Amino acid sequence: MYAYDRYDQAMVDARVAEFRDQCERRLAGKLTEDQFKPLRLMNGLYLQLHAYMLRVAIPYGTLNGGQMRMLATIAEKYDRGYGHFTTRQNIQYNWIKLEDAADILADLASVEMHAIQTSGNCIRNISSDHFAGAAADEVADPRPYAELLRQWSSFHPEFSYLPRKFKICVIASEQDRAAMRLHDIGIRIVGRDGELGAQFYVGGGMGRTPMIAPLIRDFVPLDQLVTYSEAALRVYNRYGRRDNKYKARIKILVHELGAEEYTRQVEEEFAHLLEQGVEPPLAELERIKGFFELPSPLRHSREGGNPAEGAVREESGPPDQVRGDGFESWARHNTHAHRNPDYVSAIVSLKPVGGIPGDATADQMRVLADLAEQYSFDELRVMHTQNVVLPHVAKDDLPALWQALSDAGMGTPNADLMGDIIACPGLDYCSLANARSIPIAQRISERFAANGKEAALGELKLKISGCINACGHHHAGHIGILGVDRKGTENYQLLLGGSEAEDTSLAKITGPGFDERGIVDAVETAADVYLREREDGERFLDTYRRIGMAPFKEALYA
Amino acid sequence: MNLITGNDLKTGAVTWWTGDGWSTLIEDAVDAGDDAEAIATREEAARRVNVPYVVEAAPGPDGTPRPSHIKERVRALGPTVRPDLTLKPDDPQAIEQVI
User: Fold this and answer.
1) Is the pLDDT of residue B15 over 50?
2) A385 and A253 in one domain?
3) Average pLDDT of the residues of chain B
4) What is the pLDDT of residue A304?
């Protein structure tokens, strides 16, 4: 994985020193809150429902054991012993003191981490496929390109005050595991006639006006990746609305201009920028790529093939070992095909039955750090589904890994099942929320663990947001839940038919909302309709798309 | 009744106007009446509270001020999903009273 050079480290260290001075001046009364707020937000420090909240960037969700161990230390030393992994592959701490903030950033900087650009109207943390560099189906590791864009977008003077926040995602496979088309810019690395290039999807997003990004360029040579990104941003920065924050995202601009006209303007700007020489030298990209090479043992399978080169190998599939306990179920649900057939990527569930989605204690983080070092070449990934991945695990090590995870409360075999619920912090923590999300997730998780339907339902992605900002991705859930405020009371709308995968679609509201208990019953009712109506091999989403909303509404509102 | 709430600058903790200072316990909060906005402005200028604002409330069953909106009730207690992190970790009824 990427390691800071002296410039990276110097920039981050300088920012820590600058923020320390700003915090001291705020605490001494030399800065007002209005003056200080934009400064703290530039460093990821929010004032939330109960205290300050710090959001720490985890670039494209990749970190090593030492970094995870530092996240544990921060949780214990400065917070209340836990952290919350987010749908943007970051981590948040909910109980931060302003007087500790600079010390925390200094601790983060000591392991090459920071909280820069995790808030504000700038280019946020670049997200990616959590199986990047390991997946059997990708044409290249997307992370070097994500890292190049991270470097380009960090402290970019032209894009530090955009009309609104800006999220970029980079993947490199047909299968979309990162909600790519629901980003402001979604980039898919593709192969064409032996050459790699980038598809650009621009103008997607969730929030109060969900939109699926249209394709605006089918192939950008990778030695023009930054230039094309700059053109796309420049048109947005120039014409994106600044009069109304709810209409300021790039999706509104692309929608109002039309994808064709937006594309025309980007192409015009792109042609201009090509003459300016803004693209970094290829040597820099090659330098970055060097950090992401597969660890040596992963380059050769036992059969002697070289999975790092040439065509994608047949999927390695779940491990061969079969045992009579929970291991078999975990291995079936929580492993993913690796490009080396002797290995898998293992999904660590942060969704125990009745637990808080995405929360991990300091002790659990330390276990993850240890297991990464022991079993996964010192690598971890944070998933946008609020779980963690150990990307390179030898199949032979899986039983021991599963045992260690189970002992630490992280061995629940529920990846992509009903219990694997995405939930934003909601009204329990977030000052923007209208309703609580986490208790709804907990009750649904408990209901389906008790009724035994989870396994029968198979893949079912349930996502809950506590307000229209959609941090819980409810628009993209096979089943989505949106918490709203109805005259001071929590109410929950049910949505069906969303997908954030390569078959991206936006969920539709079923009808009138439900109260806290009613929404749990409603989810079970919808699940029962699926179990009754499904045909062989159909997922919940497939059945919904075939039969439509009517049978669900009939059952829900009978 | 009008309560004034804000955050402690150093810790970020939720605080409530008591009539002569600030407390983390809503039980100590008092009705600031029509002077609420003026008190909030004065206290912020004196740096005794961060980002104060006025919230509506009514006396609860035990006479303690109960904010009208659930968001303020959650602020007053702590996260309903982590009773151990609330201000009343030993009171099993506390969360029910918030909801």
Assistant:
1) yes
2) no
3) 95
4) 55
Q: Which of A61, A93, A63 is nearest to A76 (CA)?
A: A93
Which residues of A, range 15-34, sit inside 8 Å of B by Cβ?
26-27, 29, 33
Look at chain A and report how many structural domains it folds into: 4
- Positions of chain A with pLDDT under 70: 302-325
Asked whether residue A147 falls in the same domain as residue A278, the answer is yes
Q: A34: nearest CA in chain B?
A: B51
Q: Which of A145, A262, A138, A255 is nearest to A205 (CA)?
A: A255
Q: Do A220 and A210 contact (CB within 8 A), yes or no?
A: no
Q: Which of A90, A109, A128 is the last residue of a domain?
A: A109
pLDDT for position A418: 97
**A151 and A263 share one domain:** yes
For B37-67, the pLDDT digits (tens) are 999 999 999 999 999 999 999 999 888 999 9
- Residue from A41, A48, A49, A484 to probe the interface with B (highest B Cβ count within 10 Å): A49
State both tokens at B93.
């009824």
What pLDDT, on the 0 to 100 scale, is given for residue A322? Answer: 45
**CATH number for the domain that contains residue A258:** 3.30.413.10
A-to-B residue pairs, Cβ atoms closer than 8 angstroms: 69
Instruction: Collect all residues of chain A within an 8 Å Cβ-Cβ radius of residue B12.
Output: 47, 50-52, 95-98
Q: What is the pLDDT of residue A316?
A: 53
* A289 lies in some domain: no
Its domain, for residue A244, covers: 142-282
In this predicted model, what pLDDT tens digit does every residue of B74-86 receive, in sequence order? Answer: 999 999 999 999 9
- Tokens at A206, concatenated: 């969730």
Residue B31 Cα, gap to closest chain A Cα (Å): 21
Q: For residue A381, give how far its alpha carbon lies from the nearest alpha carbon of chain B (Å).
A: 26
| pLDDT at residue A309 in the model | 43
Tokens describing residue B24: 């983390």
Q: Are A203 and A466 in contact (CB under 8 A)?
A: no
- A545, A507 contact by CB (below 8 A): no
Return all residues near B3 (Cβ < 8 A) that are at least 6 apart. Answer: B16, B17, B26, B29, B30, B31, B32, B36, B54, B55, B56, B57, B65, B67, B72
Question: In this structure, are A55 and A79 located in the same domain?
Answer: yes
- The H or E element containing residue A183 is none
The reply to whether A435 and A550 lie within a common domain is yes
Whether residues A151 and A278 share a domain: the answer is yes
Residue A130 in any domain: the answer is: no
Is residue A483 situated within a structural domain? Answer: yes
Confidence bin at B16 (pLDDT 50/70/90) = very high
pLDDT at A40: 97
Q: State ipTM.
A: 0.96
Put simply, whether the predicted model's pTM sits higher than 0.90 gets the answer: yes
Q: Answer yes or no: do A401 and A441 share one domain.
A: no
For residues A140 and A148, give the distance between their C-alpha atoms in angstroms, rounded to a whole number. Answer: 15
Domain boundary residue, one of A282, A314, A346: A282
A457 in Cβ contact with A531 (< 8 Å): yes
A172 plus A232 within the same structural domain: yes
User: For residue A331, what pLDDT is reported?
Assistant: 96
Task: Answer yes or no: is A134 within a domain.
Answer: no
CB within 8 Å of chain B, chain A residues 47-106? 47, 49-52, 80, 94-99
pLDDT value at residue B62: 86
